[in-house]
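Quick note —
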Amino acid sequence: MKKLIISLIVAFFALIVLLISFYFYSLRPVDKTDDTTISFLVESGTGKKEIIKNLKDANLIKNTPVAYVYSFLHKDIVFKAGTFTLKRNMNLAQIFSTLDSGKTKEQDGINVTLQEGLRYSEYLDILSSSLNLKKDDFEQLLNTDEYLNTLIGDYWFLTSDILNDNIYYALEGYLFPDTYNFKVDATAEDVITTILDNTEQKLNQFKEDIENNSRSIHEIITLASIVELEGKDNSDRAGIAQVFLNRIASNIPLGSDVTTYYAFSKGFDQDLSVAELNTCNNYNTRCLTYLGLPVGPVSNPGIEAIKAAIYPEANDYLYFVSDKNGKIYFSTTNTEHEQIVADLKASDMWYEYE
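Predicted structure written out below.
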């Protein structure tokens, strides 16, 4: 009998030790190596039990009952409403503390949206007006060859092509359009690093196909930057990319107006003069003696335009034109092209130049 009692006591304490061990194990991160940020929404009026259940469903905590116990033992913790930035490498205490602090994702920094098709100069306007930075902070940084060479060493998609003296802005085309969350005290270098890290993440899925492409990454991004502006509908973009490649193969100037706008630093709400259309430089592909792609990108393209440049849609077209509504008309011969243009002019759907 005495041995039985001793065995029961030992088993009891062993169980206690096991439960305590399990409790503290369950407080650990779900995955201490996973640094991925996860947006977690706590709606106003949601109870602790439901919030804890949602945390488990999002695979942010190891064990629901343990989280209930921890919550009971820390009654001073009050979950706030909002959208929070959490990570799977955070332990239960850190997650509860974040929800208790009320420091939401929006309060962690400043959200800045960079839209597809905008230019480097427009991005600088947006960034400098949104953050505690000046355009000069970016320009001084990005006009330094030492810094640019460092970037070339850090990012596989940046090559010495961006150092060409004829390029207006070295990183034009390589700043991926997206919504970013920057720290309030972010430096210009922090901002550029964040954007280029995102560009790399987006391009990595195509890295093998890019490296096996007959065109360089710089040529692909340059083509994509034109396609981004010429094709408003994603379904047209791969076809447009092929038209430009067909023209290059046929030694015909690209004839893209968007390159002319960029060449003369004009916005699309401004008119191009006939003289500008015919003036040759390293960007203006309307110039009759300029063959091939411009020296560099003329906008910052989104993922669909980049895909179109990597995977163009086979066709025999040499011409296309868009009307004022962005509808694309393809044609094989100059005669067909001129007829379409004439029809668009007759229906007041054509852009006129001064």
